């Protein structure tokens, strides 16, 4: 059954979209990631114009983070002041990212930059996760000493200190603002939530306790991706509600199955699997940049040289 | 149906006075609505050659039918290897290229039509896509225009079907077009050329209106003209479905 997407102006198979949403939802439920980093490249692949794919991806991230945030609030695992600081940075970053996105679209280099971002960030994060998961596995086998979490870096000597009770931190607002800003830029350019960058940054850079990290990052992601969606809709008219709805419906169902499946599997093995998946996506996109493409030419609507 | 059409065409051919040979034509439909379940459409263009005197002219009679979607500017970019990776470098902008272009003819184009008239009327696909925007700084634009044609042909947007027009008894003709699912909204220009002895002796022009209808139209207009409202709608939808999904699954589990 075909469905015509009013904004993307393409006709796509309904079940393909539901399946795509379901697959990404399954993975996000399984690994606890937003799945934006998978859905946007997959949309490129099935022929959705990049601008629409990125904007609609952001809308899908809103839906998938809502239920997560609600659950985390119930567990009191959201550090709201920290979330707001990250959010302020994120909104600024998102606005900046949208400006860069439109500029790069006009220059014809948006595909390249999006791909490069994916290769660099996914590659780096994937390798780090893989290494970390291997180390934890070895440690649990040997029963070695716990690593020191709180490190006093130059970061902690900056001005504008603020108390974050839920995280048990008294630090400057500048590092979280910067983290939020970078994540916001990436969210706008790559159509991702940015959890895969924010979570490690919150743990290793800001020194937040793990129990509030997921909830707080979801809180920030929810609002930043909502802002990004609105900005894309208002400046480019590139959010396709019909496409988003199909992905969301598939995604929420997939996520429920994924989280139940995830509960049965070993956490460390899951992390290694996720790391391998992330590395795979990065390698695939990287090869596309390195190998000679079958078609050297590509068409872009509009007359901007 | 066919018999009725024949009768109708013959009646028309007899009823109206004419100079030489003229086209009398019709379309199976003059408007197409793009609904949510739209997955392509078929168009039948049919007609007859109307003449007063019996067809005594020399040379073969041929018919060429074209169907052309709304034009828009297209930028064609070429990748080349820079510092080890493939990057878009050169680009060429074509001021107006039809979003869809199909030709059906009763014989091979190069045999049935004089090339000069082809150029004048811009019938063949490469000729229909020719308007460049601004000065062209490139010495050779051919690889770019060829790429445009090649890519659009692969996507099924540009089609040339020689022999797809059938002529019966040198009088009746019909051409079938299959419009793809990824159709752009706009007015689709239909042209019919009557060719005898490689020269165009008559032409007929009409339009097919392709419009989004129903929900598709509503969403598109909302997105274009009321963007902030549309943004709120998409966010509300996302928030609601995220919340509803969690609630439903909680109910199922308990």
UniProtKB/TrEMBL annotation, chain A:
<keyword id="KW-1133">Transmembrane helix</keyword>
<comment type="similarity">
    <text>Belongs to the 4-toluene sulfonate uptake permease (TSUP) (TC 2.A.102) family.</text>
</comment>
<keyword id="KW-0472">Membrane</keyword>
<feature type="transmembrane region" description="Helical">
    <location>
        <begin position="12"/>
        <end position="31"/>
    </location>
</feature>
<keyword id="KW-1003">Cell membrane</keyword>
<dbReference type="Pfam" id="PF01925">
    <property type="entry name" value="TauE"/>
</dbReference>
<feature type="transmembrane region" description="Helical">
    <location>
        <begin position="241"/>
        <end position="258"/>
    </location>
</feature>
<dbReference type="InterPro" id="IPR002781">
    <property type="entry name" value="TM_pro_TauE-like"/>
</dbReference>
<feature type="transmembrane region" description="Helical">
    <location>
        <begin position="212"/>
        <end position="235"/>
    </location>
</feature>
<feature type="transmembrane region" description="Helical">
    <location>
        <begin position="37"/>
        <end position="59"/>
    </location>
</feature>
<dbReference type="GO" id="GO:0005886">
    <property type="term" value="C:plasma membrane"/>
</dbReference>
<feature type="transmembrane region" description="Helical">
    <location>
        <begin position="177"/>
        <end position="205"/>
    </location>
</feature>
<keyword id="KW-0812">Transmembrane</keyword>
<dbReference type="InterPro" id="IPR051598">
    <property type="entry name" value="TSUP/Inactive_protease-like"/>
</dbReference>
<protein>
    <recommendedName>
        <fullName>Probable membrane transporter protein</fullName>
    </recommendedName>
</protein>
<feature type="transmembrane region" description="Helical">
    <location>
        <begin position="80"/>
        <end position="100"/>
    </location>
</feature>
<feature type="transmembrane region" description="Helical">
    <location>
        <begin position="270"/>
        <end position="291"/>
    </location>
</feature>
<feature type="transmembrane region" description="Helical">
    <location>
        <begin position="112"/>
        <end position="131"/>
    </location>
</feature>
UniProtKB/TrEMBL annotation, chain B:
<keyword id="KW-0812">Transmembrane</keyword>
<keyword id="KW-0732">Signal</keyword>
<feature type="signal peptide">
    <location>
        <begin position="1"/>
        <end position="20"/>
    </location>
</feature>
<feature type="transmembrane region" description="Helical">
    <location>
        <begin position="229"/>
        <end position="252"/>
    </location>
</feature>
<keyword id="KW-0472">Membrane</keyword>
<dbReference type="Pfam" id="PF09608">
    <property type="entry name" value="Alph_Pro_TM"/>
</dbReference>
<keyword id="KW-1133">Transmembrane helix</keyword>
<protein>
    <recommendedName>
        <fullName>TIGR02186 family protein</fullName>
    </recommendedName>
</protein>
<dbReference type="InterPro" id="IPR019088">
    <property type="entry name" value="CHP02186-rel_TM"/>
</dbReference>
């Amino acid at each position: 059954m075909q469905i015509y997407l009013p904004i993307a102006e393409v006709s796509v198979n309904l079940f393909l979209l539901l399946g795509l949403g379901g697959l990404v939802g399954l993975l996000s439920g399984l690994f606890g990631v937003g799945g934006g980093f998978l859905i946007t490249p997959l949309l490129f692949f099935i022929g959705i114009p990049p601008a629409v794919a990125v904007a609609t991806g952001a809308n899908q991230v809103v839906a998938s983070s809502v239920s997560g945030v609600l659950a985390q609030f119930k567990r009191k695992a959201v550090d709201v002041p920290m979330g707001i600081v990250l959010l302020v940075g994120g909104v600024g970053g998102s606005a900046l990212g949208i400006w860069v996105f439109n500029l790069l679209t006009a220059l014809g280099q948006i595909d390249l930059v999006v791909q490069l971002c994916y290769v660099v960030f996914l590659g780096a994060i994937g390798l780090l996760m893989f290494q970390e998961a291997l180390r934890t596995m070895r440690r649990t086998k040997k029963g070695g000493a716990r690593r020191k979490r709180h490190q006093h870096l130059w970061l902690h000597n900056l001005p504008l200190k603020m108390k974050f009770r839920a995280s048990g931190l008294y630090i400057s607002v500048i590092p979280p603002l910067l983290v939020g800003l970078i994540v916001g830029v990436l969210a706008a350019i790559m159509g991702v939530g940015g959890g895969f960058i924010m979570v490690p940054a919150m743990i290793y850079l800001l020194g937040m306790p793990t129990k509030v990290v997921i909830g707080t990052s979801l809180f920030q992601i929810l609002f930043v991706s909502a802002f990004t969606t609105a900005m894309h809709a208002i400046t480019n008219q590139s959010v396709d509600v019909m496409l988003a709805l199909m992905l969301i419906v598939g995604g929420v169902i997939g996520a429920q199955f994924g989280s139940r499946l995830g509960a049965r599997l070993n956490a460390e093995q899951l992390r290694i699997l996720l790391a391998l998946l992330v590395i795979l996506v990065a390698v695939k996109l990287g090869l596309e940049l390195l190998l000679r493409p079958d078609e050297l030419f590509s068409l872009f609507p509009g007359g901007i040289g | 149906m066919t018999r009725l059409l024949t009768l109708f065409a013959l009646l028309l051919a007899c009823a109206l006075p004419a100079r030489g040979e003229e086209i009398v034509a019709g379309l199976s439909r003059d408007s197409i609505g793009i609904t949510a379940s739209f997955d392509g459409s078929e168009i039948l263009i049919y007609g007859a050659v109307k003449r007063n005197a019996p067809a005594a002219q020399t040379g073969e009679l041929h018919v060429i039918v074209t169907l052309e979607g709304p034009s828009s500017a297209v930028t064609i970019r070429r990748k080349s290897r820079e510092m080890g990776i493939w990057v878009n470098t050169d680009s060429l902008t074509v001021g107006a290229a039809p979003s869809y272009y199909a030709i059906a003819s009763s014989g091979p184009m190069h045999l049935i039509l004089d090339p000069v008239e082809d150029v004048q009327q811009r019938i063949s696909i490469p000729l229909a896509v020719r308007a460049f925007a601004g000065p062209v700084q490139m010495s050779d634009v051919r690889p770019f225009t060829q790429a445009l044609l090649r890519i659009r042909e692969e996507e099924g947007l540009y089609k040339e079907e020689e022999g797809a027009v059938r002529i019966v008894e040198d009088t009746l003709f019909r051409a079938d077009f299959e419009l793809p699912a990824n159709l752009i909204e706009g007015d689709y220009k239909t042209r019919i050329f009557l060719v005898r002895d490689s020269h165009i002796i008559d032409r007929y022009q009409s339009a097919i209106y392709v419009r989004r209808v129903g929900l598709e139209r509503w969403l598109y207009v909302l997105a274009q003209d009321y963007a902030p409202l549309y943004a709120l709608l998409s966010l509300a939808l996302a928030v609601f479905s995220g919340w509803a999904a969690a609630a439903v699954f909680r109910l199922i589990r308990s």
